[in-house]
Every structure is written in C-alpha cells, then in structure tokens.
C-alpha cells in the first residue's frame, strides 16, 4: 500500500483519480477532548480548490456567530389603504425580511392574522418588496441550464416556499393521477405518461417547465405507488402572488388585485409583523443537512443586510472575511461567490475548511454546532452512505457535489476516542467515480486514528 504520509493513496488511485487532483486535511485532537493543539495529517492541503457545497460551512458558521443562534427573520405586511366593512381598499405590501424558509404554513398563518383584523376582501394590488437585498435575482438557467430545478432558485428577500411546487404522480385505474402542493392558480400539469409493468424502478420521466405549464412525459411502473418531483415555477413576484391569493381564497377571502414589485412607503400602516417560528440554529441545520442552496444564498445576503449593509454578495463577502480575521483565521485563497457552493468560482483549501472546523470545536456550544451537520448513514445528503457499523454514530459530514467535484468536510469520533476534523476535496473529471474513495477515507479515519 502506498500513502501520502499516513494517508492511503490507493483509495483514490483505484478509482482513476491522480494524487494531484485530491486535497486532504485532517486534524486529530487529543483523546476524549475538544481542546489542545491538533496533530495534522495532510496532502495538498493548502491547494485552492472548488469545494462545491462544503463552502456552506463557511456561510453557516459565519451566520452562527454574526447573526446569533436565536435570530429570526421577520416578514411584514403593510397597507396605505383603509378597511371598511371588511373591505381593504388599497394595496398590501409584503416587505420581505430575508426569511430563508418562509413556507406555505407560514403564509397561511399570515393570512389568518390578516383575516383576524376583519379583512375579507382586498381591492388593491399585491406589492412584493424585496428591497432588503440589493442583489437583483439573476438568471436561474445560468449555472447549468436547468432553471426549473429548485436548487437553482435565485435568492429574494421575500422568497415564498422556495419558489417551488411538489408534483406527485400515482397510477390510478389505468391512468396517472397528478397532485400539486401548493396549488397555484393557473398552473397546469400536462402528462403524457405510459404505464408499464413493474414498480418504481421502471419509471423514466422527463420534466419540462414553461410559463404556466409543467409537461411530464415518459413511462411509469403500474406498481409504483408514488413518484414526485419539485419544480421551480414563475418569477418570485408571480409565485408569491399566486400562493398568497390561493391561501387567501382558501380562508374564505376575496382578492381582486394585481401583482407588482415595489418599495413599502414610509406612510404605510403595519397590518402583520410575522416573526419566523424557526430560530437560526434550525435554519442552519436545514442548510447543512439538506444542502439547500436558496436558503444558504439567502443567509449569505442576510450577513450583509442584517448588519447595515446593502444585502449584496460583495458586502457579505467582506463581512465574512472580517469575521474570520476576528477569529484569527486568514484564508487568502478563499473566494466566496454566493455562499452556497453552486458556483464554478468559489474556492477554498482543505486546510482552511478544517481550520474553520477546529475553531468551531474550540468555541462554546461545539456539540450543538456539530449537530447541524448530517449524521453519516442516517440523515440528509449522506443518509444513504457510510452505513457501515464501524462508522455509525461516529461521523457528521457536510457533502459537496458538482460535475467534476466531490467533497466531504466534517467531524469524526474515532474508535480510539480522538475527535477529528477533516476535509477532503476531489477536483477531477472522474470525481463522481471516486466518491466511494471518500467513504473509504472516513472509515480509515474511524478505525485508524
């Protein structure tokens, strides 16, 4: 067996990935302790690399410190109109507070609060105010041409339900029945699906989204009980207005306005001050466990907007760097593009990622922080991997995946009782084939260090 120092090279070589396409940084702390200087085991650890979604660790750790664990987003509803006889004559302004997870249940409760004020009919426009962020939403197709995929949703200060709907399909008496959640006015699902023998393994479906139509074609197994997909539809404005209007109608209300974007005027009256029921620590766990890109990008912009900045990527980047400097961390190779890893430009070295993790282990509430990462073989993006008995209950790992990139970064409690922080990044055209090598590395750390 050949090795880089103590690192088994064969894990990667056997998958056709050369040594110069891999960077590894492992910090081994004292047995049973979270304190004390670590021992380092490394290969190309200071090389600047594309980390894919492991860059979310920088975004979420900065938010942990800058915003605070109990930070909660606020969404406010205003009007310049008057309510008479249950009729609001005038527009309502939805002032986005940069909530990374403003979902259907929240919208329904906002609607309930408006109804509790005696409003039954809204005779005015629906005005979406996303001015908290100066970063204008870009083209969702820009990254990979799949703008209909929820992971490509651009951040918006008033993002409703991730701007996505769940489309469910099930065989029903010789045809395919369709269900959507949430229901949006005007959205049509066109299916040309052929039922074939077999279960879900026989499914082969193609999804195309255009304007008010989602077209689903292909084949589906007769014995497959359920197949679903999440699709991003409409602009942020159109999605928010349609979701609000549907919730308003479901509450028994009548809405007669049009949708437009605009700023909330200074003379508007506050109708609802909605505070998210989710503290930031829960939001960060969602981001790290599920690798949610729109949430991460929204939190990244909030690092600017909540601290007096314009809510831009450039300003968020400056605030992350200032925070790192306060912690005594200098990552000269760091490139923060949007804070989510859905980028060909973001860069960090394995050593810097691991130094960030070690710093977090030495800070207060270390175990709570580790708990925001998915437990290997159990949850999140790594639930189907590392189910080996030797690893179970011993690894918490943020994953990263792009074309040509695979990465792991997180924590391990080895069998000998050492706490280990590690980062391993592959940048190579055959990275996807070498993904099992990362699993082998984790198992080696568990059993060897």
Describe the protein in words.
This protein is α+β, with helices and mostly antiparallel strands and 449 residues long. The strands form six sheets. It has a five-stranded antiparallel sheet with strand order 4-3-22-21-20, sandwiched between helices. It has a five-stranded mixed sheet with strand order 18-10-8-5-19, covered by helices on one side. The chain has a four-stranded mixed sheet with strand order 6-7-9-17.
How would you briefly describe this protein structure?
The protein is an alpha+beta fold.
How much is the average pLDDT? 93
Biggest sheet layout: 5 strands, antiparallel
Strand order of the main beta sheet, please? Answer: 4-3-22-21-20
What is the global morphology?
Answer: globular
Q: How many H/I helices?
A: 10
Structure classification:
alpha+beta
Percent of residues in beta strands? 25-35%
Parts with pLDDT < 50 across at least 5 consecutive residues: 1-5
Task: Determine Rg (CA atoms, Å).
Answer: 24 Å
Measure the end-to-end span. 17 Å
Characteristic key phrases:
single chain; alpha+beta; 449 residues; disordered N terminus; five-stranded mixed beta sheet; five-stranded antiparallel beta sheet
Summarize the topology:
Layout: E1 3-4, E2 7-8, H1 10-13, E3 22-31, E4 39-43, H2 56-66, E5 74-79, E6 82-84, E7 87-89, E8 92-95, H3 104-116, E9 121-123, E10 126-129, E11 164-172, E12 175-181, E13 188-196, E14 204-210, E15 213-221, E16 227-232, H4 236-250, E17 254-255, E18 259-261, E19 269-275, H5 280-290, H6 293-305, H7 313-326, H8 350-361, H9 366-370, E20 395-402, E21 405-413, E22 418-427, H10 435-448
Parallel strand pairs: 7-9, 8-10, 9-17, 10-18, 13-15
Antiparallel strand pairs: 1-2, 3-4, 3-22, 5-8, 5-19, 6-7, 11-12, 11-16, 14-15, 20-21, 21-22
């Amino acid at each position: 067996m050949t090795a880089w120092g103590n690192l088994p090279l064969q894990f990667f070589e056997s998958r056709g990935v050369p040594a110069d396409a891999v960077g590894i940084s492992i910090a081994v702390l004292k047995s049973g302790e979270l304190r004390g200087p670590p021992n380092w085991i490394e290969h190309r650890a200071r090389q600047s690399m594309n980390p894919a979604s492991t860059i979310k660790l920088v975004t979420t750790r900065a938010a942990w410190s800058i915003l605070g664990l109990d930070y909660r987003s606020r969404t406010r509803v205003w009007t310049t109109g008057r309510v008479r006889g249950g009729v609001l004559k005038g527009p309502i302004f939805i002032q986005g507070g940069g909530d990374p997870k403003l979902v259907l249940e929240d919208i329904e409760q906002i609607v309930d609060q408006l109804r509790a004020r005696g409003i039954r009919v809204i005779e005015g426009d629906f005005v979406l105010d996303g001015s908290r962020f100066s970063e204008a939403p870009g083209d969702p197709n820009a990254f990979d041409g799949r703008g209909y995929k929820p992971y490509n949703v651009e951040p918006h200060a008033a993002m409703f339900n991730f701007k996505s709907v769940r489309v469910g399909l099930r065989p029903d008496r010789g045809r395919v029945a369709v269900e959507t959640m949430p229901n949006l006015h005007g959205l049509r699902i066109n299916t040309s699906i052929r039922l074939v023998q077999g279960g879900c393994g026989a499914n082969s479906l193609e999804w195309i989204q255009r304007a008010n139509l989602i077209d689903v074609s292909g084949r589906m197994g007769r014995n497959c009980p359920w197949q679903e997909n999440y699709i991003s539809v409409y602009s942020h404005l159109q999605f928010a207005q349609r979701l609000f209007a549907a919730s308003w109608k479901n509450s028994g209300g009548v809405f007669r306005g049009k949708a437009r974007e605009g700023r909330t005027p200074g003379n508007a009256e506050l109708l609802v001050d909605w505070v998210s029921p989710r503290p930031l620590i829960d939001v960060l766990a969602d981001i790290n466990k599920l690798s949610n890109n729109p949430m991460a990008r929204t939190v990244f912009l909030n690092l600017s907007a909540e601290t007096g900045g314009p809510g831009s990527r450039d300003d968020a980047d400056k605030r992350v760097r200032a925070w790192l400097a306060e912690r005594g961390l200098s990552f000269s190779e760091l490139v923060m593009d949007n804070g989510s890893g859905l980028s060909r430009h973001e860069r960090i070295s394995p050593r810097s990622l691991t130094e960030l993790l070690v710093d977090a282990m030495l800070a207060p509430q270390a175990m709570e922080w580790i708990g925001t990462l998915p437990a290997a073989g159990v949850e999140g993006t790594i639930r189907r991997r590392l189910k080996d008995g030797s690893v179970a209950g011993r690894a918490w790992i943020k994953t990263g995946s792009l074309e040509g990139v695979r990465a792991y970064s997180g924590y391990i409690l080895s069998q000998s009782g050492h706490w280990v922080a590690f980062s391993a990044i592959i940048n190579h055209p055959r990275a996807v084939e070498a993904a099992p090598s990362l699993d082998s590395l984790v198992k080696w750390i568990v059993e060897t260090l």
